[in-house]
């Protein structure tokens, strides 16, 4: 009976481990696909804005655009395209290896996927595409407004658009902070739940020992209630 119960618990533990790895694999794949699509779209928009931007005036005279605005436009466009191309390159290189594992449709080959070893590259591509890239795109829009409306001698319009974009920038930062804060709390609660399940599994296997999850110590129970031998895990 104990052997059967032990085998059942072991199978459940292995199933939970495989399920966690499979969910992580699908999440990493979804991040890379979203990063590749977003980066390809926004880098294309940036290149179109650079090509279509007419720095000449209809009257043939030089535009009253300051050198600092043009320099900011050049730097922002270069960073925007470079960041998105880096994210696109990472996604393009990693995605085929993950798709090849998922196409096998076997849980035994999940460990062959590089999503764990290349986790930092996946997170970096996700950050480049959805955080840094979007912030640079907002800045790019503001600079294009300055160039376009300065060319038609509308000095008040760029300030209005800049104020609106600044408000959107604040909302963007607030949402990003709130989202990742709640996501971190959610992952912490899930991890704590898994640790509690492991503690219950360990307690069933070795009733004479207990684990303190919060402090990460192993307690050895004795006949005396007041005496415990504490061993650091």
What does this structure look like?
This protein has 233 residues and is mainly alpha-helical. It has a domain at 15-154: Up-down Bundle (Butyryl-CoA Dehydrogenase, subunit A, domain 3). The protein has helices at 2-52, 67-104, 119-151, 156-205; strands at 209-212, 217-220, 229-232. A three-stranded antiparallel β-sheet has the order 1-2-3.
Features:
store-operated calcium channel activity; disordered C terminus; three-stranded antiparallel sheet; single chain; mainly alpha; transmembrane helix; 5% strand; 3 strands; Butyryl-CoA Dehydrogenase, subunit A, domain 3; 233 residues
Question: What's the structural blueprint in terms of helices and strands?
Answer:
Elements: H1 2-52, H2 67-104, H3 119-151, H4 156-205, E1 209-212, E2 217-220, E3 229-232
Antiparallel strand pairs: 1-2, 2-3
Summarize the structure in short.
With 233 residues, the chain is mainly α. It is 74% helix and 5% strand.
Overall pLDDT metric: 76
- Listing every helix as H and every strand as E from the N terminus to the C terminus, the arrangement reads HHHHEEE
Query: Architecture of the domain at 15-154, according to CATH?
Result: Up-down Bundle
Give the class from helix and strand content and strand pairing: mainly alpha
Q: Percent range for helical residues?
A: over 70%
Strand order of the largest sheet: 1-2-3
Radius of gyration: 27 Å
In what range is the share of β-strand residues? 5-15%
What is the count of helical runs? 4
Low-confidence stretches: 217-233
Shape: elongated
Largest sheet: 3 strands, antiparallel
